[in-house]
């Protein structure tokens, strides 16, 4: 891939390596159970569009099928309409196929729930099976939230609808009608703003880039850097999903791809500046990036390149900071155009739209993937929750299964505990609201409108806080379930509260007992994988005998960025796996040094004509990377020795030395903890022996 504006002899830039300044490592991420985590609002926007779609899809399907058949069938159609909750941000060409698969999953879930309804035990097993399989499929195929939860909800409520084997086709059919309506509602935006998902993704990357520029020289740098990299990766994924032959050949699509390349290059240049600077940047740079975000969909809002002239004053023309401003200015020139030439930066993205479905599903079953233990934990816990409720004599056992599935979507122990508390408190309030509505014995029309409005409200707030979403989801689910199978309201309220408490408890128990250390156990290998990819990129980029083709350059950047994002995701999951977090915390400096080394490798790869290194230097650099990776895999301190002198890339050596030091510190901490644990074990045995002797006396 050709990177215009990159340093190198071909662009008129002279390579000037930055000073030996290492940015301070940000404070390690902490996941806690506290009032802010329970009730505070996450950053972001209210999902008005998602809420509106959810309300329209549910009300339309609920009303239509109730009119054609009966209210119980209408409730199943309402559940099927929840396809509108999925793939909210993907391009419409990709969304059409993905939502069809989601709809098929809902129909299968309804069929399984209907088939298993002849026995409580088979129903509990079916709900658990759907939970496990849906978790595996959603995570393997990278389905955005709400993930597997609504598949479980659909299957669970279907088990209570009066039926027999003969009713299965009808139930599946009405669910298909609801799913079809959800598909139509979700795809309706293609008629008005066909490229809105791609515009939003690229604009979000520019906004996050602005946040990164503001974070330079602050303690938040490493966290914001990860968010920026995640936003850029998401923009690439969405643009790839939009790549079809007809779409790729349009000049407006070429403009979006050009802007995507600019935001990717600016991100890497900002990384170079961030890792060599201890003071904040002028605010004009971040403001300029924010204006670029607004200009993605509105070329007339593109900022003037002259707006950065004041910030450039006093800078060396060939410095990294000057190159950052040059990239921003040239991105503004691209943003001002409504169309872009189909050659150059607007050419194809050298990749297929998405990995084959079967390959993605197989990767979710691999030993290295976190998907397999997560899916097994979900399936086993949800099944156990349902069967425990049956043994306890709960009439509506499926609410326990639904609650367990909901809280387990948190991921690690801390997030699961937070979600459990949010679910319990939100359900308690929501049950009161639902009981108040059902006590009035509202007509079907009121139930349809009320449930739809509550569903829309829940989807609008769920990304900001699950507690407030639970307050709306609970009465919605009660109204749908009551329509499917009427039940005395007072008993329904009491049972729902007890079911929520039991389901939350079982969910947390499952997170504590089943594969709790899966993330922590995979973290060293994930670090080693990111280091290996960084090694490959760095050696290939600096080898004077290697000519990297645009396609090869793209694939190297894609793979390394993916590994760096995955590394932080695994660490964030591991740090919440109580009590293993105490063993994971010392690896935070290792993770940061690995990420920074990877970003430096990406920056070297982005240069069109980077200063090469000698073969001996490359061999020594290669050995240093391999030794660090081997030390991680073997859980020992690295024996790094003297690093090769990289005059043109001094910060690579700086980060590698920091990585080696962090690894030695982490290993020493592990050894001290192991020695302390062994000492405590010996003391326990000695105390037990004394007690036995005293008992004999």
UniProtKB/TrEMBL annotation:
<feature type="transmembrane region" description="Helical">
    <location>
        <begin position="149"/>
        <end position="168"/>
    </location>
</feature>
<dbReference type="Pfam" id="PF13515">
    <property type="entry name" value="FUSC_2"/>
</dbReference>
<feature type="transmembrane region" description="Helical">
    <location>
        <begin position="54"/>
        <end position="80"/>
    </location>
</feature>
<feature type="region of interest" description="Disordered">
    <location>
        <begin position="669"/>
        <end position="697"/>
    </location>
</feature>
<dbReference type="GO" id="GO:0016020">
    <property type="term" value="C:membrane"/>
</dbReference>
<feature type="transmembrane region" description="Helical">
    <location>
        <begin position="92"/>
        <end position="112"/>
    </location>
</feature>
<dbReference type="InterPro" id="IPR049453">
    <property type="entry name" value="Memb_transporter_dom"/>
</dbReference>
<keyword id="KW-1133">Transmembrane helix</keyword>
<feature type="compositionally biased region" description="Basic and acidic residues">
    <location>
        <begin position="336"/>
        <end position="353"/>
    </location>
</feature>
<feature type="domain" description="Integral membrane bound transporter">
    <location>
        <begin position="385"/>
        <end position="509"/>
    </location>
</feature>
<feature type="transmembrane region" description="Helical">
    <location>
        <begin position="174"/>
        <end position="192"/>
    </location>
</feature>
<feature type="transmembrane region" description="Helical">
    <location>
        <begin position="375"/>
        <end position="392"/>
    </location>
</feature>
<keyword id="KW-0812">Transmembrane</keyword>
<protein>
    <submittedName>
        <fullName>Putative membrane protein YccC</fullName>
    </submittedName>
</protein>
<feature type="region of interest" description="Disordered">
    <location>
        <begin position="331"/>
        <end position="353"/>
    </location>
</feature>
<feature type="transmembrane region" description="Helical">
    <location>
        <begin position="118"/>
        <end position="137"/>
    </location>
</feature>
<feature type="transmembrane region" description="Helical">
    <location>
        <begin position="429"/>
        <end position="454"/>
    </location>
</feature>
<feature type="transmembrane region" description="Helical">
    <location>
        <begin position="497"/>
        <end position="515"/>
    </location>
</feature>
<feature type="transmembrane region" description="Helical">
    <location>
        <begin position="466"/>
        <end position="485"/>
    </location>
</feature>
<keyword id="KW-0472">Membrane</keyword>
């Amino acid at each position: 891939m050709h990177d215009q504006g990159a340093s190198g002899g071909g662009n008129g830039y002279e390579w000037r390596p930055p000073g030996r300044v290492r940015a301070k490592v940000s404070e390690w991420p902490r996941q806690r159970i506290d009032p802010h985590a329970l009730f505070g609002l996450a950053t972001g926007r209210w999902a008005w569009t998602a809420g509106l779609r959810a309300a329209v899809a549910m009300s339309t399907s609920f009303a239509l099928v109730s009119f054609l058949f009966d209210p119980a069938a209408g409730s199943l159609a309402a559940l099927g309409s929840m396809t509108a909750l999925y793939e909210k941000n993907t391009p419409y060409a990709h969304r059409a196929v993905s939502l069809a698969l989601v709809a098929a999953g809902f129909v299968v879930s309804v069929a399984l729930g209907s088939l298993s309804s002849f026995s409580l035990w088979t129903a509990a097993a079916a709900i658990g099976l759907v939970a496990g399989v849906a978790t595996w499929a959603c995570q393997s195929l990278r389905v955005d939230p709400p993930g597997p939860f609504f598949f479980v909800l659909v299957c669970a409520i279907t088990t209570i609808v009066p039926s027999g084997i003969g009713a299965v086709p009808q139930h599946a059919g009405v669910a298909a009608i609801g799913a079809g309506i959800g598909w139509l509602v979700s795809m309706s935006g293609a008629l008005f703003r066909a490229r809105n998902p791609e515009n939003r993704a690229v604009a979000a990357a520019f906004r996050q880039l602005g946040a990164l520029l503001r974070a330079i020289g602050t303690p938040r740098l490493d966290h914001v850097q990860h968010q920026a990299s995640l936003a850029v990766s998401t923009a690439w994924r969405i643009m790839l999903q939009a790549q079809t032959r007809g779409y790729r050949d349009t000049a407006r699509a070429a403009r979006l791809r050009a802007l995507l390349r600019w935001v990717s290059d600016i991100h890497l240049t900002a990384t170079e500046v961030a890792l060599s600077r201890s003071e904040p940047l002028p605010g004009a740079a971040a403001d300029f990036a924010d204006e670029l975000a607004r200009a993605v969909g509105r070329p007339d809002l593109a900022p003037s390149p002259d707006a950065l002239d004041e910030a450039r004053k006093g800078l060396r023309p060939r410095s990294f900071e000057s190159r950052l401003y040059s990239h921003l200015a040239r991105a503004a020139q691209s943003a001002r155009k409504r169309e872009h030439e189909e050659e150059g930066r607007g050419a194809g993205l050298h990749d297929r739209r998405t990995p084959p479905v079967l390959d993605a599903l197989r990767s979710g079953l691999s030993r290295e993937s976190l998907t397999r233990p997560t899916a097994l934990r979900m399936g086993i816990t949800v099944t156990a929750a349902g069967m425990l409720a049956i043994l306890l004599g709960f009439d509506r056992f499926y609410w326990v299964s639904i609650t367990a599935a909901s809280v387990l979507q948190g991921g690690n122990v801390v997030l699961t505990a937070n979600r459990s508390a949010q679910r319990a408190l939100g359900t308690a309030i929501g049950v009161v609201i639902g009981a108040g509505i059902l006590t009035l014995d509202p007509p079907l029309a009121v139930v349809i409108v009320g449930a739809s409005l509550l569903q829309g409200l829940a989807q609008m707030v769920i990304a900001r806080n699950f507690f407030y979403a639970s307050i709306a989801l609970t009465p919605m689910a009660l109204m749908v379930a009551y329509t499917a199978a009427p039940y005395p309201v007072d008993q329904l309220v009491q049972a729902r509260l007890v079911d929520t408490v039991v389901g939350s408890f079982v969910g947390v128990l499952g997170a504590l007992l089943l594969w709790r250390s899966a993330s922590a156990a995979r973290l060293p290998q994930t670090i080693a994988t990111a280091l290996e990819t960084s090694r490959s990129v760095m050696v290939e980029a600096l080898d004077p005998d290697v000519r990297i083709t645009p396609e090869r350059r793209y694939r190297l950047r894609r793979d390394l960025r993916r590994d760096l994002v995955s590394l932080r995701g695994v660490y964030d999951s591991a740090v919440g796996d109580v009590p293993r977090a105490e063993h994971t915390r010392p690896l935070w400096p290792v993770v940061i040094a690995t990420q920074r080394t990877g970003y430096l490798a990406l920056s070297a790869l982005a240069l069109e004509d980077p200063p090469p290194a000698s073969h001996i230097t490359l061999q020594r650099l290669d050995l240093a990377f391999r030794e660090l990776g081997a030390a991680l895999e073997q859980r020992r301190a690295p024996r790094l020795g003297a690093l090769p002198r990289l005059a043109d890339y001094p910060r690579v050596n700086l980060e590698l030395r920091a990585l080696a030091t962090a690894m030695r510190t982490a290993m020493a901490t592990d050894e001290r903890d192991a020695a302390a644990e062994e000492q405590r074990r010996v003391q326990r045995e000695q105390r037990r022996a004394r007690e036995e002797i005293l008992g004999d006396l």
